[in-house]
Design goal:
By secondary structure, the protein is α/β, with parallel strands linked by helices. Helix 16 runs parallel beside helix 19, helix 23 packs across helix 24 and helix 26 packs across helix 27. The model has no long low-confidence stretch (mean pLDDT 87).
Amino acid sequence: MRDMISVASGFQYSVNIGYDLGSDNKLKSFIPTKSALSLLEDILLSVNPTSSDRARVLIGAYGKGKSHIVLTILSILMKRDLTLFEKLMPKIEENPRLYQLIQNYYESENKILPVVISGSNTSLTQAFLLSLQRTLSEHDLLSAMPETNYKAAISVIKRWQKDFPETFEKFLNGIDDPVEVFIDRLGNYDVAAYGAFEQVYPSLTAGSAFNPFLGFDVVELYESVAKSLKSKGYTGLYVVYDEFSKFLEANIVDASVSDTKMLQDFAEKCCRSGALQLHLMLISHKEISNYIDKLPKEKTDGWRGVSERFKHIHMNNNFSQTYEIISSVIQHKEPIWGTFCDEHARDFEALFSRYQKHQMFMDAQGEIETAIRGCFPLHPVSTFILPRLSERVAQNERTLFTFLSAEGTATLAVFLDEYEDNFTLVTPDLIYDYFEPLLKKEVYAGDIHDTFVLTSTILNQIPEDTLGSKIIKTISLIYILGQFERLNPTKEQIIGIYSGTYELSEIEQAISDLIEKEFVIYIKRSNDYLRLKQTSGVDIQQKIHDQIESQSGKITTKDVLNGSNFDNYMYPCLLYTSDAADDTPCV
């Protein structure tokens, strides 16, 4: 199939905003969705000096393309060549309002420098400071030092002079000017003097690099840097904390009150920055409120205060757009594709007939066409499962995009290499195989983990790559998704998935064998659902008989009845005494 189908470049690896900011290929491969265009428009509107809407938290599951969207938007804010946005610009041109916003921005004096923060093993203050320093260095903007850099250097020199005379003496030997002259040059923002200080600093501090930002208020420092960059052609800074959720997962219990206050202050500063253009975006997989439920009240209130300072933007679960993206990644080559469609017209028609009115594809007009032809060779059920499973369990290393484009075991690439030019479809069992390593990790996900353990137990008793094992994996995925109103685990559903590869009799026999061996239960009273069953391998009736025999010699009916009688009774009686004179009984 490789001669007829290829995979669009640029999807082999997940996007890292910090590393990929200068990548042309990432911009060329970006496929816009409605939610992406809406976010772009929202951010371009916030560039207006009168806007007070400059602090956002972008929320969406793995595999939703959040990083790719933000990477593209930041590139526009940097005024990268519009011809690089090969797939984005045609969509923008269809929206006159958004197209005009783009034109206005590129014709304006605005040019915003992105500062990308990532990582989960540092404090917020340190993460913000180090990322700013790295950004200025990478863009050769350290010469546009803000006041604080020079003041920090002067402060260090004076501290050496007062508290560390030996270090101060070594410093004097490392510079050419008298110390008073050198400090005066720093006070006048002499770039050469600052460079000399940076050069001598490591030899005095066991090789460490001078970080001029430590010890200063983060919000004031960013504001100062933004002001100093105006002379270099930048009108402000756009700060993005990529994968902010990882910081929350690793540090939210230990995060200090000063961390939350810094975030609140930064968000407020951004919303009031006016023409200075300070923006902040946090990228998270869940709402901040989902991470704070076990914190003490003081910290809970602090993080709620942070959350309230930000505009919350959710990546909508519009799977119709996801199908379009999948169809863009899977590229069909003409004229081979056209010939193939003609030769297999009856096969395509059979798929349309079966799934045209199926509940899986009732959200939008045209979904079924995209799912069947556009996403070929994915089976329509695989097209339905793939983005939803990716949203539930995907991580950076395994998403729907890596399944489609990466080389490796159980990927689309392997499928294309193995099968010839025929009407063979990617069924859900291949998707199960690809995401199996992630399903193993879902130890805290309850139902997902339980279903995976049950599935693994059954698969260990069935030969690999048989129809029976494929059916088990498919049923497992249907239960993991749990959207029975759209895709239910019935016999008819299984037949529809595998009828293109196997005869009807083979499928029915495979299902019957699974039921007979008690790997699957056929629940007729519950919508004819098929359900996985974990067998214990024990003869229950024999076990009951053995237990009866083992107890028969130890227990008697009398003991059982006496043991069941928990009530004790008091019987009334008459007490007789006799009179000492005539022995007459008295009561």
